[in-house]
C-alpha cells in the first residue's frame, strides 16, 4: 500500500494535469489540504516537497506554492524509444495519422545520409502525432529499403520499431540526434495545429543497428509549447 503522501501527491498531479489547478495559480494552503485529506501537516509537506522536486510547483516564500506549467511532455534526448512506447505518458488520448507512405528514390542528401547508391530506394513515411486532440508532432521518416523491405499503413500507425525488432528480428542500437529551432514551413502549418506559434522544434535522428549500419533518418517536428527535452547527465572524474 502506498504511503498517504504519495497518494496525495498523485492526486494533486492529476488535478494539475487536468487544469483544475492552472499554471501560475496558487495551490490551497497546507491547512486546506490537511482538512481536505484528513491528515497531518507533515504528510502534506512531504507531498508538496515531492511536487516541488518533480517540477509541478514552485514554493515562494510568503506566497505559498505556485503551480508550474505541467502540460508539457518529457521527451528524452538520450533515449531511443518509439512514440508507442512514450504514449502512456503523452496525455489521455493519442493517435497516429499516417499522411504518407511511399517507396521513393531519395534526393542526394538522403542518399548520402543513409549511404545509398544512386539507384537505392527508401520508404518515405510521414506521420502526424495527435495528443489530447491536438496535432503537435510531424515525423518525417526515411527507412533504407535494403533493411526494411515492406511497410504497411497498419505497421506505421502502430510501431515501426516493434515491427523491425519483433517481426524482422533486427536489433536497433543507437542514434545521433540534432536539435534545432526553426520557423514552420507551409507543410508544418498544414499538417499541425500551429495557430499562434511562430517556431517549431526539429529533432533530427540518425538511427543505427548493432553493426553500426544506418537504416533510418528522421525529422521529428514538434510544437514548442508541449515538450520539455530532457536528459540525465553525470559528471565524470578523471
Structure description:
By secondary structure, this protein is α+β, with helices and mostly antiparallel strands. It folds into two domains: 64 residues, Winged helix-like DNA-binding domain superfamily/Winged helix DNA-binding domain (Arc Repressor Mutant, subunit A, Orthogonal Bundle), CATH 1.10.10.10; 158 residues, 3-Layer(aba) Sandwich (Chorismate lyase). A six-stranded antiparallel sheet has the order 4-5-6-9-8-7. It has a two-stranded antiparallel sheet with strand order 1-2. The protein starts with a helix and ends in an 8-residue tail after the last strand. Keywords: DNA-binding, Repressor, Transcription, Transcription regulation. GO terms for molecular function: DNA binding; DNA-binding transcription factor activity.
Provide a concise account of the structure shown.
By secondary structure, the protein is an alpha+beta fold.
Overview features:
238 residues, alpha+beta, Arc Repressor Mutant, subunit A, Chorismate lyase, 2 domains, 6-stranded antiparallel β-sheet, two-stranded antiparallel ribbon, 10 strands, elongated, UTRA, transcription regulation, Trehalose operon repressor, repressor, TreR
Amino acid at each position: 500500500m502506498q504511503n498517504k503522501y504519495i497518494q496525495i501527491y498523485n492526486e494533486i498531479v492529476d488535478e494539475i494535469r487536468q487544469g483544475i489547478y492552472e499554471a501560475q495559480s496558487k495551490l490551497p494552503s497546507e491547512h486546506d489540504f490537511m482538512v481536505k485529506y484528513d491528515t497531518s501537516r507533515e504528510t502534506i509537506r512531504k507531498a508538496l516537497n515531492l511536487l516541488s522536486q518533480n517540477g509541478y510547483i514552485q514554493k515562494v516564500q510568503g506566497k505559498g506554492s505556485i503551480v508550474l506549467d505541467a502540460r508539457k511532455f518529457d521527451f528524452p534526448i538520450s533515449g531511443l524509444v518509439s512514440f508507442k512506447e512514450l504514449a502512456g505518458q503523452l496525455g489521455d488520448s493519442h493517435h497516429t495519422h499516417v499522411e504518407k507512405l511511399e517507396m521513393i528514390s531519395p534526393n542526394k542528401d538522403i542518399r548520402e545520409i543513409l549511404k545509398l547508391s544512386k539507384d537505392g530506394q527508401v520508404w518515405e513515411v510521414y506521420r502526424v502525432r495527435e495528443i489530447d486532440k491536438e496535432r503537435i508532432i510531424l515525423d518525417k521518416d526515411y527507412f533504407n529499403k535494403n533493411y526494411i523491405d515492406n511497410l504497411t499503413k497498419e505497421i506505421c500507425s502502430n510501431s515501426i520499431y516493434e515491427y523491425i525488432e519483433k517481426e524482422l528480428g533486427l536489433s536497433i542500437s543507437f542514434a545521433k540526434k540534432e536539435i534545432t529551432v526553426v520557423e514552420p514551413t507551409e507543410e508544418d502549418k498544414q499538417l499541425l495545429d500551429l495557430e499562434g506559434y511562430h517556431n517549431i522544434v526539429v529533432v533530427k535522428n540518425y538511427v543505427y543497428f548493432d553493426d553500426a549500419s544506418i537504416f533510418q533518418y528522421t525529422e521529428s517536428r514538434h510544437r514548442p509549447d508541449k515538450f520539455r527535452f530532457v536528459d540525465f547527465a553525470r559528471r565524470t572524474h578523471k
